[in-house]
Amino acid sequence: MAHVIGDDCISCGSCEAECPVSAISEGDGKYEINADACIDCGACAAQCPVGAISEA
């Protein structure tokens, strides 16, 4: 199951930099995870400083 980024995201970009398959992108100041590209490795969630990423 893919991960999602919650409203408590501070738009720091650390998740995007950590994603090994480039499934995270920024749009309109918010980061989003492409569920079709996400391999559910959890690297983004482990990197998030505010715990804004969880499993969908």
Automatic annotation (TrEMBL):
Pfam families: Fer4_9. Coiled coil: none annotated. PANTHER family: PHOTOSYSTEM I IRON-SULFUR CENTER, PHOTOSYSTEM I IRON-SULFUR CENTER-RELATED. Its cofactor is [4Fe-4S] cluster. This is Ferredoxin. GO terms for cellular component: cytoplasm. The keyword Acyltransferase does not apply. Ferredoxins are iron-sulfur proteins that transfer electrons in a wide variety of metabolic reactions. The keyword Repeat applies. Keywords: 4Fe-4S, Electron transport, Iron, Iron-sulfur, Metal-binding, Repeat, Transport. Residues 1-28, 29-56 form the 4Fe-4S ferredoxin-type domain. GO terms for molecular function: 4 iron, 4 sulfur cluster binding; electron transfer activity; metal ion binding. InterPro entries: 4Fe4S_Fe-S-bd, 4Fe4S_Fe_S_CS, 7Fe_ferredoxin, PSI_iron-sulfur_center.
